[in-house]
Structures are given as structure tokens and as C-alpha cells.
Design a protein that fits this description.
The chain has four helices and eight strands. It is of the alpha+beta class and 185 residues long. The protein has an eight-stranded mixed β-sheet, sandwiched between helices. β4 and β5 form a beta hairpin. The radius of gyration is 16 Å and the shape is globular. The model has no long low-confidence stretch (mean pLDDT 95).
Length: 185
């Protein structure tokens, strides 16, 4: 779905804009995918795996997300660059229509500037606009204390653990934690 544009000011004084991705963002999104994957061991994909994404496939993804009635993507634009993105998708099966899954990632240089908080405020706004959605869900990898702190600040609470869900490049295993945030009904 297409979202509203949300301008805001970063903690360092620069202006930022949350918005739906556009056709002209495809190259920047591909660059962002590779760079973000290399900056954090807590992102599901690796830089090597990003080779499967092409400008054509990324454009199809942007167009399908923007046309969806049950999902939305937001990019954060700072100084003409993609600083991060997030998405939300509503479940489509009758018994799970009350749930919405979210994901978020930012380039390292933009950590701690208020983008994550702004993104979550907008994701909550979107979820609250979907009839019947009463909870938002996400997962994070053990050791990602910055993400956990943001999620807890935004009202998410740990509800479960998936042991040894991630194997890092060094061979170590990490748990994955599930979190839920209840919405005002």
C-alpha cells in the first residue's frame, strides 16, 4: 500500500522523510541491501546473498508492495539517500487476520538518530488503521541489544524463543526472540 509521507528532523538536525519506495529508488535500495547486510550480523541476509536481487526484481517488489492492500514498505530518505527501510504485512488467513508482522533495518551511520522510533510510530499508525489488527509481531537475534531496546521502548515484549535459530559466519549459534506489541482496540 502507498503510505503517507512523514517528514521529521533527525537528532543531528538533518531532515528526513519516511515514504513509500519509488521506481527511482531501486538502485539505492539495492545498494542499501548489500551495505546493511555487511554492517550487522543480525540481518537475515548476507552481502553475498544480495546478488540474487536485480533492478528488475527489486522494481517488481516495490510495485507489488505499493499495490498491496495487506502490506506496506517505508523507506527513510536522508540527504537524497536511503538510510533504512521497514515493512509491515497483515496476515491474510481468517484465523490470523488480527496479526501484523514488522521488520526494520538501518544503515549503521544512521543509528541513534531517531529514525527507528519514527519508523515504528508510522508502522503503529498503519497497523491501527487496519480493521481487526490487534497485535504487531517481530523477531530479533540474540545479542542485538540496540534493536531490543528500541522494540521494548516501542511497547514490544518478548513472548518466545527459537533456540539456535541463526548460525553466524564464525559458526556460533544464536537464539531468535519473538516479540509482540498489543494495539489499542
Amino acid at each position: 500500500m502507498l503510505t503517507r509521507e512523514v517528514p521529521f528532523v533527525l537528532k543531528d538536525g538533518r531532515r528526513a522523510l519516511l515514504r513509500s519506495p519509488r521506481k527511482e529508488d531501486v538502485s539505492g535500495l539495492l545498494d542499501y541491501l548489500v551495505k546493511s547486510a555487511g554492517e550487522s550480523e543480525f540481518i537475515l541476509r548476507t552481502p553475498e546473498e544480495c546478488g540474487k536481487y536485480t533492478p528488475e526484481s527489486e522494481l517488481r517488489w516495490v510495485e507489488s508492495m505499493n499495490a498491496s492492500e495487506s502490506a506496506a514498505v517505508l523507506v527513510c530518505e536522508v540527504d537524497g539517500r536511503i538510510a533504512g527501510n521497514c515493512d509491515i504485512s497483515r496476515r491474510v488467513n481468517q484465523k490470523t487476520l488480527h496479526r501484523a508482522a514488522v521488520a526494520i533495518a538501518l544503515l549503521h551511520e544512521f543509528w541513534g538518530l531517531g529514525i527507528g522510533t519514527a519508523m515504528f510510530q508510522e508502522l503503529i499508525h498503519i497497523a491501527e488503521g487496519w480493521e481487526g489488527v490487534i497485535q504487531m509481531e517481530l523477531e530479533f537475534v540474540e545479542g542485538n541489544s540496540r534493536a531490543r531496546a528500541l522494540y521494548e521502548k516501542m511497547g514490544f515484549r518478548i513472548t518466545g524463543v527459537r533456540p539456535d535459530a541463526f548460525r553466524l559466519k564464525d559458526g556460533s549459534l544464536r537464539n531468535e526472540y519473538m516479540m509482540i506489541r498489543k494495539l489499542a482496540v
